């Protein structure tokens, strides 16, 4: 496993960008910090890489992957971010720990498979994570760095032995400040629904959503 020290509040340097590009191109798995937890990622356009990620996580393929994007332009390449509510939530909470489930418009940019008609993604507050997505030229999957059912990691030293032996590159920004995972809001139905309460409290969303239905909390 390659390991790069990095600052989560700074853009990735040239050496790290090259290393990440190299690993993604060969269908490898990377781990990097967001402002909430460490995440696992692969090239979303490579079927072998996506399959490897699901197997590593022991994650059901019916439980789709969340994504992080570098900026709104990247978001709009993949999903339909439109309408007063979507625009208002993006303007208020991005960059930040709010994941929006939106209509997918670019399934051809993803690996063949059952992606469904929606995609869950956000623009993180972590400058390092945004920079990785920008330099990759695409939103990146960002599922919590743990085997399904185990505790997510906010510190690289908390990564399980299974992950340490399986990932190809770790972007190490040290221990992250304590945080819940991102809050997830589904905007594809009426009314919109909170699927998971996390770092953004339901009370912060009520001015936009009213008292939306609430799902379980947990990691990505």
Task: Please give a structural write-up.
This protein has one domain (2-209): DHBP synthase, CATH 3.90.870. The protein is built from 7 helices and 11 strands. The radius of gyration is 16 Å and the shape is globular. It has helices at 14-25, 47-57, 72-78, 84-93, 127-136, 161-166, 202-209; strands at residues 2-5, 30-33, 38-41, 66-68, 98-103, 118-122, 140-141, 143-144, 169-172, 183-186, 193-196. Strand 10 (183-186) and strand 11 form a beta hairpin. Helix content is 29%, strand content 19%. The strands form 2 sheets. The chain has a 6-stranded mixed beta sheet with strand order 7-4-6-5-10-11. By secondary structure, it is of the alpha/beta class. The mean pLDDT is 92.
Précis, in short:
This protein has helices at 14-25, 47-57, 72-78, 84-93, 127-136, 161-166, 202-209, and strands at 2-5, 30-33, 38-41, 66-68, 98-103, 118-122, 140-141, 143-144, 169-172, 183-186, 193-196. The protein is of the alpha/beta class.
Number of strands: 11
Order of helices and strands: EHEEHEHHEEHEEHEEEH
The number of helical runs is 7
CATH class: Alpha Beta
Range of strand content: 15-25%
Question: Which properties best describe this structure?
Answer:
alpha/beta; DHBP synthase; five-stranded mixed beta sheet; 29% helix; globular
Topology of this protein?
Blueprint: E1 2-5, H1 14-25, E2 30-33, E3 38-41, H2 47-57, E4 66-68, H3 72-78, H4 84-93, E5 98-103, E6 118-122, H5 127-136, E7 140-141, E8 143-144, H6 161-166, E9 169-172, E10 183-186, E11 193-196, H7 202-209
Parallel strand pairs: 1-9, 2-9, 4-6, 5-10
Antiparallel strand pairs: 2-3, 3-8, 4-7, 5-6, 10-11
């Amino acid at each position: 496993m390659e390991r790069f020290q990095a600052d989560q509040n700074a853009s990735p340097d040239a050496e790290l960008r090259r290393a990440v590009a190299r690993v993604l191109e060969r269908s490898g798995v990377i781990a990097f910090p967001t402002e909430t937890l460490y995440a696992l990622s692969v090239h979303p356009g490579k079927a072998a890489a996506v399959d490897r990620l699901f197997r590593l996580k022991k994650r059901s393929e019916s439980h789709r992957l969340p994504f992080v994007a570098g900026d709104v332009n990247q978001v709009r390449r993949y999903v339909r971010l439109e309408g007063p509510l979507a625009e208002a939530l993006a303007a208020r909470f991005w960059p930040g720990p709010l994941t929006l489930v939106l209509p997918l418009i670019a399934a051809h940019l993803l690996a063949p498979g059952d992606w469904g008609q929606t995609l869950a993604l956000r623009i993180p507050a972590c400058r390092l994570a945004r920079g990785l997505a920008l330099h990759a030229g695409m939103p990146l999957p960002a599922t919590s760095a743990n085997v399904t059912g185990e505790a997510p990691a906010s510190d690289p030293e908390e990564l399980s032995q299974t992950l340490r032996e399986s990932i190809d590159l770790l972007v190490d920004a040290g221990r992250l400040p304590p945080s819940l995972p991102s809050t997830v809001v589904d905007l594809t139905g009426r009314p919109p629904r909170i699927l998971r309460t996390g770092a953004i409290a339901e009370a912060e969303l009520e001015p936009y959503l009213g008292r939306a239905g609430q799902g379980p909390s947990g990691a990505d």
